[in-house]
Amino acid sequence: MAPSPMAPAENHNPAPDDHSWGSFSDAPPWILTSKVPHWRKSAGTRRAKQERDLPGLYEAPRLPPLRRALTVARHLGGAVALWALNERGKPQSRAGISRRIRVAAERLGPTYIKLAQIISAGEGVFPTELVDECKKCRDQVPAVSYDAVVEVVEGDFGRPMHKIFKTFEPVPLAAASIAQVHRAVLLDGTSVVVKVQRPGIDELVRKDLRVLAWLAPFLVGRIPVSALANPPALVELFAETIVEELDFHLEGDNMLDVAEIMVKLKQTGFVIPRPHPELVSQRILVMEELKGFKFDDVAGMTDAGVNTHDVIRTGMIGFLEGAFVHGVFHGDLHGGNLLVLPDGRTGLLDFGITGRLTDAEKQAFMKMMMTATMNDVTGQVEALRDLGALPEDTDVRKVIDDIGLDGPPVDPTKMTPDEMISELQRIMKALLGYGARMPKPLMLYVKNLIFIDGSIATLAPDLDLFGEVTYIATHFFTKHGATFANELGVDQKDWKMDLDGIKAGFGVDPTDMEALSHAELQERRALINKRLAGENPLKSPLRKLGN
Known about the structure:
By secondary structure, this protein is of the alpha+beta class. The chain is built from 22 helices and twelve strands. The chain is globular.
């Protein structure tokens, strides 16, 4: 069996010089002799300008761009009107409005498709019906023409294509809402991949954001999907997420930041493609191509001797350490942005969305993790407040009492459908009453955890979740306990893991289960989903026969 990705196979060739500071491949098409290529020098200024300009994109304008607003109103208004006529008040109501929103997004083009794609990765954050519909948007973005690509490349680099590339494949490897990726060969024979932004997407996104910001206040209380109960907050979250993707200087900067952080963490299980030291502009990103197994190719990895359990463990620890220790993490983990190299290391792709935490947010994340392992409910709610999920003046004790967070653990699989739905509605109503919202760092964090959860189901379904949580928590507080204690102003000796509390967090009685595999967790979730759909497996004749 191949070595764990935490300790890659020995390579008798001398390591490239840039390995000393960046988690890059072993066979580079070029070596980054500087951590700050010329195109990276302006990244900080560009990022700061984006932050200054953001409020103007999500604050409701007095008037929106009229023509675009009419187009949006026609599609979204038509979707809601057809839903009201055909599905409102019926059992298929949520599925109906979700389908119609997805169709409207596709008709409205790249900005709205991108919004749908972000929602599609939000299982557990957004309703299942909406997530399932939005997943259909992931691979349905038509590519722009080769002539348009040539125009962008030559416009940004100020040179004809033949003076940059020996060959350039006209058909893209992939086409997404913001950009598409092509294979190419440089004049010196080096094979590369080229990410090219869609022409005019910057202007279209900003125009669409102004329309959404104008429209959002009119939708408050009118969308029959609880996760969308605060449309203005959703527009703000979307603006914060998408704007960074419009400048590839920032994506290149993100790549180098994450590569450097992985070396600092001694996380050798990750590989980040090298951006080209010269060929990066606002709309073009030339980079090294990584090759490996798709993240769901379990058979291929197993045949190559890759330990898929180690792949999962590396992913979890690397993501959490990046967030909690350095405050930077890949913000858009999904199967298309990850591949597993033949030696078991994980290649990270597409850094357009990257989580960056302020010092206060990083401390809040640290507190959230520490208090979660200790089953400290008060500390967890305080951490969520400090992250911006609750207003600063929130009475934490009252939230805990109102929602019943410090009560005895409740096993949802033992609740009736009516009890479960009533409880969820009560909790949602209470949270909205306190002004709960989903800030960008928390949304990216939750979205990544949901992806990792799904990856466990594919790569390591028999993984003992209690044992894995214990391993990761112990790893963190052994390696980073002093840092956590110093940042949070607490005594490292005060940390003591509460495994019974963690088990209760999974909704199980600590005395009933010593271990819980992910496959068993999925069975519990399936049972919960059936009850939320109004079924009661306890009354099923098949269940009686099974007994």
